Amino acid sequence: MSSSVSRKMFNADGCSRCPVGDVNLFESEPYIKKQTGVWPETNPFFIDSIYHLINRNTKLSEGVLFVDFSRDNIAYFINEDWMVGLKKTRMRIVLVIDRFMKPIAQYWYARYPDIALLPVESEGITTFLYNLERVLNGENIALNGVTSVTENEIFVLRKQIAGESARTIAFILNCSLKNVYNYHYSLCKKLGDLPNLKKLFINHFHHYY
Predict the structure, then answer these.
(1) For the chain, N or C: smaller number of CB within 10 Å?
(2) Are 103 and 187 in contact (CB under 8 A)?
(3) CATH number of 151-208
(4) Angle formed by the axes of helices 151-161 and 166-173, to 10°?
């Protein structure tokens, strides 16, 4: 029996901020009963790659939603709306994680341990395909040695993308301005030794709009 899938758009209720409703779903013939989705739809190369990879795999026995958990999409992942929206699809959620986003993936995994983690490692496609096979078999890939972002760091990300000043953030958190700058510095270190956080949000909105 063939495992090939055809492209089909799938709409689900989502958050008002990000296009959770726009899930690119590849649905197989009815007798195969397999579905695979991709979200968000900001990177056509990611969508095409997932499409071709699942066509090479014969063990896709359940609905799987692959999330492009990359740094360019970071602003999607600083509020819980995205997870709540994707949960409504009732598909298994797999985070395909770039090397910069592991600390944020670890944060969400601690909150939702039923999601699967699939890091993109520097070893290349062979390692990725091996790990993909493990994930489709129900296993998970541990992010060893990764320090998760904290609640306060996620809060700072949310407020900065909303355009809040460091002083306003300090007031809301009831902490010193120095603490806010420390959260900013810690985030920059965890997300790939960035000089600042502005580039993350510029890339995100470039994709979104």
Answers:
(1) C
(2) no
(3) 1.10.10
(4) 140
